[in-house]
Amino acid sequence: MKRVLITGAAGFLGSHLCDRFLLEGFHVIAMDNLITGDLQNIEHLFKEEHFEFYHHDVTKFVHVPGKLDYILHFASPASPIDYLKIPIQTLKVGSLGTHNLLGLAKEKKARILIASTSEVYGDPLVHPQSEDYYGNVNTIGPRGVYDEAKRFMESITMAYHRFHGLETRIARIFNTYGPRMRLNDGRVIPAFIGQALRGEDLTIFGDGMQTRSFCYVDDQIEGLFRLLMSDCNDPINIGNPEEITIRDFAQEIINLTQSNQKVVYKSLPVDDPLQRQPDITRAKELLGWEPKISRSEGMKRTYQYFQSLPKEELFKTAH
Ligand code: NAD
Ligand code: UDP
Q: Which ligand is nearest to the CA of 75?
């Protein structure tokens, strides 16, 4: 039986990866320090024979007994309000954490996939973003803690690949959404849906003309799975190229939730990228992958999930 270690397993993407790998017949070793994650995301897995959980901070030495075939390194704060609140931990998990996991992969002769991000392109001057674009990141800006941690993560991963011959995969993940996002994580989808459900106005940052391209989680997990199983060492964008302005997106959410909320405008956070859209030519050619789930279908499923949460969850929201 193949054994996979998934870090960040109690988070949004990590928990969906655990589900997928169990379904594929793997033994799943989940690891998380719960800094932004929630055990509720994986509590349904604790009864599974081939699932185990380690409560551990990956910036500390990582030890896993037995063989390991694959490692997926997903531990990291991922939403702007999280990484602005815990900037040093964000830098450490991208640097020290990644170093520890590369060391573990080397010891176990395991293949490792790291969760990089569209944020390596910063506020991009090239549109859409393809993998050969080097990016436009403000190293010393508030978002730099996340962006530079991820850029370092890519560099050290390629160094382990080149120097030690490690089998490495780099996923540049673009905005992904779906069930198990935290209602109060500050990312735009939980923020807008939470506001609609509480009967509050939707807060648009800036003039709302900035764009994002949202990928439903099931499509993302399929892309990640294919990337891990492929032989691509170079970074690959995984995201949905369907682009929308935040202003139009707020209107879509008002329509979806059939709420009569208004929108209010707040200042744009420093270094907030003005446009973002993945060029997924490489993923199509090398992985035979492209997203299948439309935004309207994905948003319907996501809204149903947030509606099904206990009412008190709604009021834990603060940002
Ligand atoms: P999340 O916050 O839901 O999950 C991250 C998990 O990592 C949490 O459970 C958290 O407790 C855990 N974690 C953080 N630091 C840790 C540490 N030092 N040791 C052990 N566990 C730690 O975020 P997510 O959206 O699921 O993102 C997962 C990964 O994917 C992150 O690396 C993120 O940078 C990357 N990513 C996500 C998106 C997205 O749209 N969701 C986009 C680009 C990249
Ligand atoms: N955003 C917004 N209102 C909110 C939360 C976010 O207008 O309440 C904007 C944010 O400024 C950004 C976009 O929505 O331009 C996506 O933000 P998110 O935090 O989801 O992701 P990221 O900026 O990391 O792509």
A: 1
Give pLDDT, residue 201: 96
Q: Which residues are catalytic?
A: 146
Note the pLDDT of residue 312: 86
Ligand 2: which residue has its CA nearest to atom 16?
188
Could you report the per-residue pLDDT of 78-103, keeping only the tens digit for each? 999 999 999 999 999 999 999 999 99
Ligand 1 atom closest to 94 (CA):
32
What are the DSSP E strand ranges found in the chain? 3-7, 27-32, 51-55, 70-73, 111-117, 168-173, 176-177, 202-205, 211-213, 215-216, 236-238, 243-245, 263-266
Percent of the chain whose pLDDT exceeds 70: 99
Q: State the distance from the centre of ligand 2 to the C-alpha of 200, rounded, in angstroms.
A: 17
- Atom 14 in ligand 1: which residue has the minimum CA distance? 76
| β-strand partners of 150 | none
Q: Which of 5, 13, 100 to mutate to test the pocket of ligand 1 (most atoms within 8 A of CB)?
A: 13
Q: In this structure, which ligand is nearest to the CA of 275?
A: 2
- pTM comes to 0.98
Candidate from 20, 34, 35 with most ligand 1 atoms within 8 A of CB, to mutate? 35
**Separation of alpha carbons 14 and 73, rounded Å:** 9
- How far, in Å, CA of 244 to CA of 298, rounded? 15
Who's near 250: CB < 8 A, 6+ residues apart?
192, 202, 204, 208, 263
Peptide bond before residue 128 is cis, with ω within 30 degrees of 0 = yes
For the beta carbon of residue 25, count every other beta carbon within 10 angstroms: 9
CATH of domain 3-181+214-241+272-293: 3.40.50.720
ipTM above 0.85, yes or no: yes
Which pLDDT does position 318 carry in this prediction?
Answer: 44
Q: What torsion, rounded to 10 degrees, do the Cα atoms 15, 17, 19, 21 define?
A: -150
Give the atom of ligand 2 at the shortest distance from the alpha carbon of 175.
25
Going from the Cα of 259 to the center of ligand 1, the distance in angstroms, rounded, reads 31
